[in-house]
Amino acid sequence: MSKAKEVNADLPTGSKYTLKEVRKLIEDDPALHPHMLTQDEKNSYITDLVEYRTLKTSGSRANNIAAAHDVLDGLRDHCGTYATFIIAGGHVNDQTPATWYATDNASDFWEDALNLVLDDVARKFEQWACSQGKNIVERDSLENMQKQAARLVLAGLRQVTNKTNIIMNYPNYMKAIVLSYGVILEGWPMTIPFTSPWNIHTVSDMRALHNALKAGTCAWRTMSRSELEKYKVDVERQQIAGEVIGKPRKKRSDAGTSCKRKNAAGGSKENRRPSKKSREQTWASHRQPKSREIIEDSDESPSSDGDEED
Fold it and tell me: What are the pLDDT digits (tens) for 55-93?
């Protein structure tokens, strides 16, 4: 790194040596060979390299957009991931312009799969952000935290089960979720009853649950086979002990009585609906071929001379 700074110090932008060229210069310079350097010189070069890497990784950027570029490019280089970044101001007086950034050809996805242009998406995103018009107090309101907590729980459930159409069942959580899909929600605050966020009406409790979900301390995970079997045994033991597991289904008002179909008009035979068998017989009778009233004898033919018999 010190050699790169030395050789590129007086060169204008665009004509500086590349990393490959700098390495070639070091190889050709006997004074920079490892066996020619003292321990202090080696430590100095290592310190410069560590400082450069630290600055490159965590140093401040000109703006948030430049920082996001570095993060996404790092994900692409190290993990081979595709990513799209969209940023917009949250206020009409915000000076941050709506913009986007995509690694490689990730922007093609928006046009090919969704038929959307990212420029239009960024502008609509800015309009939506400005229309929210929420300050810090409004974002921390009970209703907003309830909404976000419910979304986080549901999103985590769909991600861990890989089922996009699943819904959260709080009353029958043990049977409908844990035993059915083998997943469990861990880290729920112990001071808060396990129920839908919409049923939590205390701001402090709701904030504690919301923060736990946002931080990831309350999250879904997949249970092992042994854990699931033990959980199933515990649920059965609770049921035997007389505990109510979940919310029982509501009985119908006519439960226990026979439900017979009544005739449409007083039960008279004329108005009674024909049975399926009789309808099939009637349909079959209509499909049978009709016989002719008069059948001519094909053996008889008129006389050759055209005389009539007496």
Answer: 666 555 555 666 666 777 766 667 777 888 888 877 666
Provide the phi-psi class of 248: left if phi over 0, else alpha when psi is between -120 and 50, else beta: beta
- Strand stretches in the chain, DSSP E: 84-87, 99-102, 183-186, 219-222
Per-residue pLDDT, averaged over 37-60, amounts to 72
Residue at token pair 């301390």 = 217
Mean pLDDT for the chain overall: 75
Question: Cα dihedral angle (68, 69, 71, 76), rounded to 10 degrees?
Answer: 140
d(CA 107, CA 215): 30
Query: What are the phi and psi torsion angles at 188 (to 5°)?
Result: -65, 130
Contact status, residue 82 vs residue 108, Cβ threshold 8 Å:
no
Dihedral angle at the C-alpha atoms of 238, 240, 244, 245, nearest 10 degrees?
Answer: 50
Separation of alpha carbons 195 and 212, rounded Å: 15
Residue 272 pLDDT level (bands cut at 50, 70, 90): low
**Distance from CA of residue 192 to its chain's centroid?**
27
Rounded alpha-carbon distances, angstroms, from residue 201 to 65, 143, 256: 39, 9, 40
Residue 230: its pLDDT value, please? 92
Given the structure tokens 């086979």, which residue do they identify? Answer: 225
**DSSP bridge partners of 184:** 221
Report the C-alpha gap between 244 and 7 in whole angstroms. Answer: 78
Cβ atoms within 10 Å, residue 69: 15
Count of CB atoms within 10 A of residue 256's CB? 6
Question: 0.70 cut: is pTM over it?
Answer: no
